[in-house]
Amino acid sequence: SVPCRQGKFADLNAFISQTLTHRNGVPLFETDGQRDTTRFTLSKKNRLLAVKDNIVTNSLPTTCGSGILRDYRSPFESTVTDRLRKAGASINGKTNLDEFGMGSHSTNSHFGPVRSDCFEQRSVGGSSGGSAVAVAARECDVALGTDTGGSVRLPAAYTGVTGFKPSYGMVSRWGVVPYANSLDTVGVLARTAKDLFRVFEQARGHDNRDPTSITNATLQRMKEGRLRATVKARRSGSFRKMTKKLRIGIPMEYNIEELDPGVRQAWKNALEFFQGLGCTVVPVSLPNTKHALSAYYIIAPAEAASNLSKYDGIRYGTRNKSSDSDDDILYSQTRGDGFGDEVKRRILLGSYTLSSEAIDNYFIKAQKIRRLVQRDFDRIFSLPNPLRPPEQFDLSDMDESILLSNKLGPSQVDFIVCPTAPTLPPTLKDISKQTPVDSYMNDVFTVPASLAGLPAVSIPIRIPANYQISEAPAFAGIQIIGQYSDDRRVLEAAMMLE
Ligand code: GLN
């Protein structure tokens, strides 16, 4: 079950109904097509790079935090690290993670959990927890992570740093060990959004070795689409609104009862900040959010089960030596020893939901939910989705309650601002008592953007002293989510907020 009852947002209605005027009189953002943002090369301040250990480099081992890859060294370099090295980055280490990226607290690694000296008793988030801690502890300037369902944003939120998941396909996945290919993205963690921007500018771009990498022609078409939207808005008289008065959406479904009061306060402060700049804050509805988590935990394990089948001790993976001479047990012993419990759980889940008996009820349904989640976002963003024209598809077998909730009217916004996680970092003791499903709940606010492939950044927002908890950063992660391919404006918004 997914937390979905709505909580109280104190005086939210009062403050969303205020219309503040634009204070400084200058456009907040340049829209795409008017100005091409200057390309940065990495400066001295953002050269030292830590790399999550599921991204291959030819100079260091790549273990994916897994026993089955404990001896693996890649003969080639990933596109993203190659590009960053060419831009001046030097890699100072590979960082620990939840095995193959599966987890939310970085406690599922073959090499032991990621721990932070400052906040020893608490979760650092996962699965890119090692990258987040390396940034927070200043062991590097910036770090690469991967974000399939929140693995860059959640650790950023729990360690008080910024973390960015780009639009799906913007950064090449060549050399990134797949967890769930249709969701995997390479993200960046840094201490400031400006550093994220600089690194992202170097990392992005088409790569013909990744079949899901956005082509230059598509990138160009997206840019033209945004330009057309701008011109149309200018004609209809709302151009001013687009450049000077951004509309920020607050998804009401994210205001759940379980939301930590400190997180809610940080959320409110972030919204008030944008209002103070002249933006209009409006409530929006993303009705399928409540189904997103369940859909994610069907799709991701299904893809994972398929991806991980190649680790058999023959084609890939360290072979269990004692089973070497016995073909019957080679496969089961190698995989039994090599994979940790969470990975095995995902393989079982995925294999079941893909089985002929369950596929219609689980995998196919989850794909439909995924499409509904994408449509929720497309409906509320003022920019059109350059990849998905409005379409019809067969929903005849979906519950009526799901279809009814889709009929809510449109509300056009530039960004969505919402918490990254419902709570502040839990203690490791509490986590050890949780069921796997409890820990899946941490991803409730991050998976919707993943299912829709949207760019999302998590920014640390200070929590008032009376809401702070011991041994944790004095910040809560707040996300800014934008329309597909609107990555730069999302980062520009983050630069203003931090
Ligand atoms: N916690 C999520 C999972 O375990 C997300 C992981 C990720 O983004 N790599 O699947």
TrEMBL record:
<feature type="active site" description="Charge relay system">
    <location>
        <position position="52"/>
    </location>
</feature>
<dbReference type="InterPro" id="IPR004412">
    <property type="entry name" value="GatA"/>
</dbReference>
<feature type="active site" description="Charge relay system">
    <location>
        <position position="127"/>
    </location>
</feature>
<dbReference type="InterPro" id="IPR000120">
    <property type="entry name" value="Amidase"/>
</dbReference>
<keyword id="KW-0648">Protein biosynthesis</keyword>
<dbReference type="GO" id="GO:0032543">
    <property type="term" value="P:mitochondrial translation"/>
</dbReference>
<protein>
    <recommendedName>
        <fullName>Glutamyl-tRNA(Gln) amidotransferase subunit A, mitochondrial</fullName>
        <ecNumber>6.3.5.7</ecNumber>
    </recommendedName>
</protein>
<dbReference type="InterPro" id="IPR036928">
    <property type="entry name" value="AS_sf"/>
</dbReference>
<dbReference type="InterPro" id="IPR020556">
    <property type="entry name" value="Amidase_CS"/>
</dbReference>
<dbReference type="Pfam" id="PF01425">
    <property type="entry name" value="Amidase"/>
</dbReference>
<keyword id="KW-0436">Ligase</keyword>
<dbReference type="GO" id="GO:0070681">
    <property type="term" value="P:glutaminyl-tRNAGln biosynthesis via transamidation"/>
</dbReference>
<keyword id="KW-0067">ATP-binding</keyword>
<dbReference type="GO" id="GO:0005739">
    <property type="term" value="C:mitochondrion"/>
</dbReference>
<comment type="function">
    <text>Allows the formation of correctly charged Gln-tRNA(Gln) through the transamidation of misacylated Glu-tRNA(Gln) in the mitochondria. The reaction takes place in the presence of glutamine and ATP through an activated gamma-phospho-Glu-tRNA(Gln).</text>
</comment>
<dbReference type="GO" id="GO:0005524">
    <property type="term" value="F:ATP binding"/>
</dbReference>
<dbReference type="GO" id="GO:0030956">
    <property type="term" value="C:glutamyl-tRNA(Gln) amidotransferase complex"/>
</dbReference>
<feature type="domain" description="Amidase">
    <location>
        <begin position="49"/>
        <end position="491"/>
    </location>
</feature>
<dbReference type="InterPro" id="IPR023631">
    <property type="entry name" value="Amidase_dom"/>
</dbReference>
<keyword id="KW-0547">Nucleotide-binding</keyword>
<feature type="active site" description="Acyl-ester intermediate">
    <location>
        <position position="151"/>
    </location>
</feature>
<comment type="similarity">
    <text>Belongs to the amidase family. GatA subfamily.</text>
</comment>
<comment type="subunit">
    <text>Subunit of the heterotrimeric GatCAB amidotransferase (AdT) complex, composed of A, B and C subunits.</text>
</comment>
<dbReference type="GO" id="GO:0050567">
    <property type="term" value="F:glutaminyl-tRNA synthase (glutamine-hydrolyzing) activity"/>
</dbReference>
<keyword id="KW-0496">Mitochondrion</keyword>
